[in-house]
Structure formats: structure tokens, C-alpha cells
Structures
1.
Amino acid sequence: MVVELQKWNNGKGIDLESWTNCSGSFSLAVGYTTIFWPEFVEFDGYILRGGFCENTLRSFESADGYDRKAV
């Protein structure tokens, strides 16, 4: 990213915040919220990211050396 930022402004560079103002869009910001602001759900006493796989959760629960806190 440093190299990319140095190319801006006729080689004078640009800071990251200014770059996001120039390159970003409202649509991208909304889209990225699914990554950086995920949906969480309560399931069986756990707080998990929405869309979790119950089979994966159960496999962690049954693995040797794992307890509820480790899961």
C-alpha cells in the first residue's frame, strides 16, 4: 500500500485517509460492513458469527482437550 500511495499526487504521495476519500464509495463501504461488522447470533449459549456451521461447532466441542471456553 505504501508504494501505491507514493504514486499519487504527481509522486508527492497521499495519506491513507485521503486515498480512501478519493478511491472509496458508499457502496463499497456498505459492502465491507459484512466483513468488518459481522452479524452475531446466540446459539446454545455461545455468541457466534452469523452463518456458522453447527457441524463444525460440534466437532470442536468433541475434540480432545477442548472445553466450552476453548471452543
2.
Amino acid sequence: MINIDRALRSSIRTGKVVLGSNLTVETGTSGKAKLVINAIDCPEEVAKMLKEADVPVYNYSGRGKDLGSACGKPFPVAALAVIDPGDSEIMALLREIRGNEDE
């Protein structure tokens, strides 16, 4: 099990990550996102569009303000897309996502 908050900060620092619902949907539907992470209070329409985009989605266990804080930002983040993980372990979340799909 990885430390998600640490992996998020590392991917933001060393890779390429877009923050915010609109950019996340745009990146997800264009096929550029390798992984999407959304907060539990992510708007339903955003979550639906991301699900339809056929991109792996990890449901973060906290609210937008918690996800924003985990990213080192002073504002809420409802969703984010990882384009390049950089030196982080964030892509290890794919195993968890795939494990949940089997249930």
C-alpha cells in the first residue's frame, strides 16, 4: 500500500498533473490521462464523464479540500489527472483500481 498523499506530491513535483474538474475531463476524454483521481465530493456529472472516458479512476477517500491539501495546494481539488507520474509511485494505484473491479 502506497502513501497516496506523498505519491501525489511527488507526481506533481516531478511529473505532469492537471488539477480541476474541467481540465481533468478534457485530459481524460482526449486520452492523455494515465490515471484520474477524484474526491468523494466530485460533482456527479464530472464523475460520469470520467467513467465514460475509459480512463482508470481512483476514488480518493477525502473531500476536495483534503485532496487539495494532499496535493500541497491551498484550495479544494475535486479531480486531477496524471499525465506523467514522474518519479512517484502513483501508478501503483492502478493495482488497487483493478482489484476493486474484480469484486
3.
Amino acid sequence: MVSFFTNAQDIVYNFDTDTEGWVKIASATTEVTQSNGTLVVGTNISNYGGTLSPELNIQDTSYDFLEFVIQNNTTLTGFQLLSYVTGGTVGSTATKTNFEVPADGAFHTIVVAIPSTPGANNGNITNLGVRVTGDPAAGESIVFDAITIKEAAEPSYNGFVKNPNFDDIDGSLGGWSLVGTGCTVAVSTDTNSGTQAAEFTYNANIPSNPPTLFNNYRWSMAPAAIGNIETLTVTWDMKSSDATTLVKVAPRWKMNIVGGSGDRVTYGAPQTATDTYATYSVTRAISNVCADQASPVEGSNCYDTETYDNIELGMSARDGDAGVKVTIDNIISTITGTSLGIESVLFKDDANITVFPNPGNNNITINAPTLVKGIKVINTLGQICIIQSGFSNTLDISQLKSGIYILKILQDNGTSSTKRFIKQ
């Protein structure tokens, strides 16, 4: 589950002497000029007006986002970053990422993920463009003090979640995106730990069909597809801005149905936020179990015969009122079961690794010489009971039966070690 990057150098445009190859997107009236160390896009910016970079020819595996230092001198706040088909010069030939810039005439630093490269480009980013998603009035402008094309740092993982603490890219949600209406989501510096958290802001009360912040990362459920005999636990930190307004957040996950069509979507139980940070946890079967239904109908309200080969987490927000905020941080995800595979282990207790508490009941902490990037829990029959991939040294063991288990621990330096622990 660990991604590897090429350590590409940032591509920086400072506009100290000229436009550095940035030109207008096809429009009869828009002008792009350099002035006082900035790139000015103005005159009469049509809906397709904006800027287009010089020919880049860089690989999309090497670069992840753009950082703008931008001044918005229009009355509009909606913008798009565009990745173009080779030779394309209009919006219809590009993939797009929406972003917003305050219309206050001040310079802001905005971080925007590069949209997926058009398939025709075979992973090659040819040009990037920026445009206003509307028609500013004649004489209005947007001004860039700098544009930097960057790669992300190596992402962090916890269980099957990528960037679980929202810290991987400064000023951006780092791959998470909102699906649905009724609220907006942005980065917050009001965190329980680290530097960033995700903050939902309600536009209105949301009694049903809650919007969901999805991870946009799918774990393949290695080593094999699994079904609803497995349980899933999601733990997260959360706080609300209003002590009197009911605000609820629930984990939601979607999984590809093996041999079927589309995804199976499952909700965890919603949890009510308080006005101070607290930790919340939801555990349930990975999809509905027929034995839990009063009138089970396989394939309708329960799915005992289905298996799934990947999974993506989302966090949904409901209730609330206009202006209320709820902040989430530090998501931990674990899948627990007995069909995760069989593994024989040559056990040798590693004296360089400690487990605390041992015996344990709910959560254990693993202290190792280098970062822990993967954990398997194996019972005395050789069954893999828990798989947790990602850089985390904590493990939720609350769903395990009492007994003796072996931890197989993979460290960041490539060392694989074993350690015995007891579940109370």
C-alpha cells in the first residue's frame, strides 16, 4: 500500500521578467501580461479566458499538485485547474479540478490537486491551464505572484485509508473530496494532533442523504477478496463548533462486488460530536449479514454470498445548521476476520520490539527501531486475523477473541519481525 515517488524537482514560475510561456486560453479579448513580478490575466476574461502553461511534457506520476499565490480581482470565486490533451487549447479537451479563491483583492496561497491526465496523453502532462468558471466584468483581473508545480511527499496510510490525518499536503485535503450537497469541506488548522484536519461547514440542516468526504483511494483487500464475515472498525477524532446543535458523522465505505456490477455501500452508525475533541469508534460487519435481519432477503437487505476485492472509506455528515462546523482528524481503520488468509510463521520473539499493554484488551502500541508500516495478527491456527497496512504503530484488537496471537511486523527499513501478545 506504499506509493513510491521519483523525487522530482518543483517547477517554479516567478514571473520576474516575463510571462515564462504562460499565454491566454483561446479567447478574443483576454490578455496575459507580466507586470512587477506578477502574471496578470485581464481585460475581458471570458468563461474560457485564463492562462495556459508552455509545453511541459512531464509525467503525472512525478507531480501531484499546483500551489498558486493568487489575487482575485473579480466578483467570482469559482476557478478550475485544467490538464490538457496534447495540442488542446479549450476546456472541452481537458480534465478539471474545481477550486475557490476569495474575491477580496488580497493575495492567497491556494493548493490544488492536478486533475487526472487525459487518457490520450498516456500519463504525460502536456499543458496546465487556469480559468474562472464564469464571465468576469470587463476590466476585472486575476493576478499570479507565483505558480509552483509540485510532487507530494510520500503519503501516509492507516489500514486502508490514505492520508488519514489530512497532513500530507499543506493547505489541501490531500486526495479527499466531497460528494453531495449541503455543506463544504476545507482544511482546518484546529487539530487534535498534527498540522491539519478536515472541516465540514454546513450550509443548511441535512436530515438525510448526507454528503460524504471520500478518500479517493482503494485498497485491494489483499491477499484475497473478503465477505461480510469480516468486521471493520473505524476510529476518528472529532469536534463540533456548536455545543447546542446536533451534528452527526458516520463512516461510509464502498467496495467492488466481485463478479457483480458496481459497488456495495455500507454505513457505520452515526456518532454525535461534542464541542471539544473526543475519539469515536464504529465497528460493524463489512456488509449486511442475513442473520441480523428480521426478514432477510439475500441480495436485497443482506449479502452473505457476496465478496469484495477493494474498499474506499468516506466520512459523511448530517443534521447540523447553517454555519455550524464539524472537524475530523486522525482516522484509524482496521479489518478483522478469519478469511484473510493462512500464514505460517517461524516465531522468534524480537527483543528490539515491545508491545504495550501486553496482555491487552482494546488497543496496543508497538515500539520498534524504525517506523512500522505493516502489521498482521496471526492466531495459533495460522489464520490471519487482522491486516493493517500503513505507517501506524497502534492496533485495535478489540474484536479479537481472548487468546495468544503472533504479531508479524514489517518496518520501514524492510525488517520483518515477530512478537507474541495476549488478548485478554
4.
Amino acid sequence: MTTVLRAACLIDGTGRPPLPDPAIVVEGGRIKSVLGGGDTPGPGLSGPGVDVLEFPGKTVLPGMIDAHVHLVFDPALKDREKIRVRVLEESDTRLALRALRNAQTALRAGVTTLRDCGDRGFVTLAVRDAIADGLVVGPRLLVSGPPITTTAGHLHYVGFQADSPEEIRRATRVLIGAGVDSLKIMATGGMMTRGTNPSTSQYTVEELRAAVDEAHRVGRRVVAHAHGTPGIRNAVRAGVDTIAHCKWQAEVSGRDYEPRLRKELSLGSHWWKPAVRDLDLAVIEEMIERGINVDLTFSGVRRTLIPHDGMKAEEQESCRAQLRELHHHYRVVKEAGVKVIVSSDAGPGGTKFEDFALGPMGVVEAGIMDAMEALVAVTRLPAEAVGLEDEVGTVEPGKCADLVVVDGDPLEDLRSLRRVEFVMLAGRPVISGGTTVSVR
């Protein structure tokens, strides 16, 4: 079966200028050719056996990629203790169903590839395989299983607790043996786990390197959760592939940090000031040399600061100023030459899977990227970060036909990413008008 998609415009994910009046020819689940400017698909690509899909006034994009989600968490919950209790009390079956629902929600938002960065009990592996086998509809999944963390460390209640290079090496081998696609390790504490300190390191360079060596030996990539500069520094020196969050928070003692964190969280979603930053330019240079990318997770309270039409002009400008201040360190890292991808961290803390578009919208409002750069940061760059650059991330001949059609021009208004009208996954229409239309 041959399918030809026609639209007003194609933004192909490479960063090249948009292609007007494209005709994208799909055969066997892959993109056969990409024509533009009113070119016709050619002999044999019209008539019987050819399905021509017309999208006048619309824009075609590569399927978007969210390289950092937590499918087993319920985004309706914001309280950290309720989140912990929910994920611990639910059965594996119910967690798997929740993960599937969240993945399908992301698919309806135009996200055709997800990387899960920490589940409980390997339930996301079953969801991944069910989708791949055509039992259910869902996006392409890459999963890391339970995260590796210290005893009582960040997300210890769902993770592998390991406290030495030997224990970390064994945990990594168990995860690889279970069939994970990547590894997630907690280089610092995190906001989701009371009693941990996001500004300090949980692991030494030697301990982190044990996970990296084992993972790289069998072709798996390692994502390091790191808020504070000490953890970022250790993770980079250990040779991880991605630094998630990468906030460059200056180290604050555990005795002082927890009361301050509680105060910040109690002041409401519209109050936020960045922690003191401790940018290490030598570490940034090492990131560039090693090819380590930064995973900017535009989640939680940051999303509430994105200006919208319901705000007065002065309120919109105030939000932009806060976003610019909050994300200054990301501008420094990007301008230095580090590859920055935009993810959601959806699942915890009220960060919804259907709102992935708020990430690219937010980084533009924060002055980190322009609209085209933001689109590349949710297509081509994350495809490279997760190791699927030969398959997805751009609309080019030979690539897998993961395509999204949105109403409007994202380069003029990124809010059009929230108006997804059609999704094709590996050459098969799976979403039309926000409704699931196909399993295989």
C-alpha cells in the first residue's frame, strides 16, 4: 500500500527551512520520497492502490520524541507523598494499564516515541512489548525499568538500591538481563523524594562509572538524574550519555536544604525563584568533548509561567522575565555548544502527558531557543540522544514514517503543536481528529 500525504507545509526536523506544498510518499512503513513546491509524486503513485491524504492549510512534522517520562505515575497527583503511596499500593497490572493510558495520551499529542526513565517492577517492559507486537495502540517505547539509586536515595521506593561499584554493576546487569533499552541512575537527590538533597551528589565518579561501563559494554545508554553541580560533575566524568535536569544548583547542606525546599513548595505554583547556580565551565567543555547531551525537562511550575492570552500584557512580560531568569543556565550551556533536548518529565508533579507542546513553547518564551530550534529539540536531537537517529526524528527518505499533522504553522505560533489532527506511526494512521483509528 502506498500513501501520499499532502499539506501546506513540511517542517522536516533537520532545521532546514520549511518545504511548501509537500507530497510525502510512504511505502512499507517508510518514507520513500519527499517532494515539494507542487511536484507530483510521479507515475504509479495515484489511482488504485494509492491512498492520498490531503491536509490543506496544515503542517506536517516528524513524530515528536519525549525522551524523559515516567509512565507509571499519575499526573493528576501533585502531592509527593500521595504519589509515593499510589505507585507503591497499585498492582503491577494496574500500573501497566496506567502506563499504557499515559503512553496513548502522549501519542494523541503527537509524540510517537517515548523514553521512560524509571518505572516500578519492570511493568513498562510489558507495555513496550505489547505495543510492539500490535496488541494495543501506543507510541514506540524505550524503557529503563527501575532506576538505580542509593539506599534511601531519590525514588528508592521504586528503584534498585545500590551503594558500591559492585552493587551498581550487579544492578546494571540485572536491568540489562531483563531487557531494558537504557539505564537511569540517580546522581543526586530529587524533588520527588523527601529526605534527599537535589543539590548534592549521591554517587562518586567510580560508582557512576561502574554503571556506564556495564551499560556501554552491551550498547545501552545511561541517563543520569542530576540537579546539583556536584552530581553533574561526577556524571560527566563518569561518561554518561545524558544529564537529565542539569540545573547546576549550588550545593547546600542537608540540614539547611529540606526546610528551604518545604518553604518553596508551600508558596504556590506561581512563586518560583531559581536556586543559586554554580555553573562549571570546565565541566561544560567536557560535556562537549564527550558528546553528552542535556535533557531540559520543562515540567511542573515552569509550565504555569508560559504566557497565554488570558493574561494581561504586563503579566505576560513578568512571566517571560521569570522564565528567562529561571533558565539562564540552559542558555549558557546551549550557546557553549552542548546539545540540549527538550523533554517533559511527565507523570509526577501534575505534569500531564497531553501537554508535551508546552516544552517547546516554554523554551522559546524563556529565550533559550527560537521556534525552529525548539522543534529540532523535540525531533532530531532526541532521536540522536536515544540512539534512533537512523529511524526517526526527521522526515527524510528511508526513515520510518512517523508523521504528525498540526493545524497551523508552528514557526508562527508554537501553540499549533497543541492542535494535532493526524498521527502516522510506522506508515499506519493511528490517530485522526484525536481519536485512535488503528492497531496495526
